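[recover] target loaded
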């Protein structure tokens, strides 16, 4: 008896907003084919871990938090004149590790000069982002940590609508810490504070308040 091929693309494009679907025993080539079919800016996040394929659909609420965190980091780049490169939800994957993932956001700080002005990344040779961001509104992303560890991501920011947690990679595992390694002026408490202000008072007031705080930092 021949097993019927699964049309992953058809299934994932019908996902309701804010839901996920998991497939098991998926070949690497099938994972890469799905990435090509879906393309970028699809409203989906796709992860792969040793044959386990997970696809999540995004909500506008989820994207609101992601965009706000990007705005905070962009404000640091401008105000403090730090070279920070943004690569959004770039697909990070390595065939030899049989792992791949798409963060909600990612950026380079310490290794920004290595990337230079290139637009396209090749994670077979390029370093991983210095920070990846995961927003846990409808889903829990902690099970993706082994993927990030295998890919060599040194720092994760995870926001669950209440608290932003900073995690550093130590001995192939992530350990919660208070201060960002990539941007030491930031702590989990500070990021949580402005995310909370965004929810309570709106994005514009929170961004202005964050910019005022940046101006108080020693140059």
């Amino acid at each position: 008896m021949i097993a019927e091929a699964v049309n992953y693309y058809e299934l994932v494009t019908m996902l309701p907003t804010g839901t996920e679907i998991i497939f098991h025993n998926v070949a690497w080539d099938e994972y890469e084919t799905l990435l090509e079919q879906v393309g970028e800016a699809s409203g989906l996040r796709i992860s792969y871990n040793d044959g386990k394929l997970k696809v999540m659909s995004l909500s506008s609420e989820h994207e609101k938090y992601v965009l706000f965190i990007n705005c905070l980091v962009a404000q640091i780049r401008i105000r403090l004149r730090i070279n920070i490169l943004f690569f959004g939800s770039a697909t990070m994957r390595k065939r030899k590790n049989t792992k791949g993932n798409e963060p909600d956001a990612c950026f380079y700080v310490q290794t920004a000069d290595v990337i230079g002005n290139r637009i396209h990344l090749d994670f077979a040779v390029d370093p991983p982002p210095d920070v990846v961001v995961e927003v846990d509104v409808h889903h829990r992303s902690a099970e993706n940590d082994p993927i990030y560890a295998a890919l060599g991501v040194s720092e994760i920011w995870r926001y669950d609508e209440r608290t932003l947690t900073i995690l550093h990679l130590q001995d192939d595992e992530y350990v919660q810490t208070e201060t960002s390694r990539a941007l030491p002026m930031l702590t989990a408490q500070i990021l949580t504070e402005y995310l909370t202000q965004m929810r309570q008072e709106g994005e514009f007031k929170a961004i202005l308040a964050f910019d005022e705080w940046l101006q108080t930092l020693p140059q």
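[recover] notes: The longest strand covers residues 164-170.
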